[in-house]
Amino acid sequence: MSVPFVDLSRQFAPLLPQIRKSFDDIISRSAFINGPEVGIFEKELAVWMGLDQACGVSSGTHALSLTLQALGIGPGDEVITVANTAFPTAEAISLTGAEVVFVDISPGTFAMDPEAAAAAITPKTRALLPVHLYGIPADMDALRKIAERHRLYLIEDVAQAMGARYQGRRVGSIGQAGCFSFFPSKNLGTFGDGGAMAANDQKLVTRVRMLANHGRQDKFTHEIIGTNSRLDTLKAAQLSICLKALDDWNADRRRAAALYDVLLTPYPEIIRPQVPVGGEAIWHLYVIRHPKREALRRYLQGKGIQTGLHYPQPLHRQPAYAYLDLKAGSLPRTEAATAEVLSLPMFPYISAAEIETVVRAIADFLGGCR
Length: 370
Fold this sequence. Notes:
Structural class: alpha/beta
Helix content: 25-40%
Strand order of the largest sheet: 1-9-8-5-4-2-3
Number of strands: 14
Largest sheet: 7 strands, mixed
Strand content: 5-15%
Oligomer: single chain
Number of domains: 2
CATH topology of the largest domain: Aspartate Aminotransferase, domain 2
Radius of gyration: 21 Å
Number of helices: 12
Mean pLDDT: 97
CATH class of the largest domain: Alpha Beta
């Protein structure tokens, strides 16, 4: 049996008639930019998050960069984040003109180490930007306390964790703002790029909305220099429909992760992902670690099992950040993790038989290594 890494068709198929109907309606009205569906989705997203307001934008990258910019973060400032995430997390900081400060991850996790973050704070530090990587919550209690102690903004990268909870609260609702990506493969994905930010701060959300719409609140008055980062009406309509299915989709991901956990338990050579105490993951990705990652990946590929790498090269070792002069070994836990991570097939409605096929192939590989 071949197993895909992701199969979006399974989750979208039941909703396609409703989505197509909404698209036909929008096309008939030619309401492609700032149609009423955008505002409807923003309100639904805010309610779903338990926050006052949300603002749709063109990507998760812009959700982060415009939020930071709206907070007044820019040249001369520093923002602390991790290096084992997708490039846009750091890129968003750089787009504001602020300096990226990379810190290591906590032992046994994929999330920002609060002690490392505290040690990296300088008089120039303006914000902490933790990433809820793979859909697993970061240690928000510790990070929130650090942010409050040093009067820093706490901005959450929720691109991979929409619906995850920490101490009962949805991640993205704990800091000053949560930033989301609707890239097609995300837990809530659209047909192309899209993103949003949400917060309880009306002034902040209004500022982001202005920045995303050429610096204006009305058509002809441009109060500040902004950009073009609006969420399209068609995408907002589709996201509104899919948001109603997201809790069920996330529940199915948790079912799949639980089965992976059970089936992989007999194999201590495989390091399984850990969820912090008080956390509830939604498993955008199910990422294991193994020292022979590349050999395991090739073996699974030969068996018709697709896998992913998230992410094989830490950001502080990317050419774009070579100017930071962070040598190999500067973030040892991050570098060890990125050398070993392997993402297994994970998506809503992946079958038990498919998961069993994946684990059986892993067991065969391990047997050959002994």
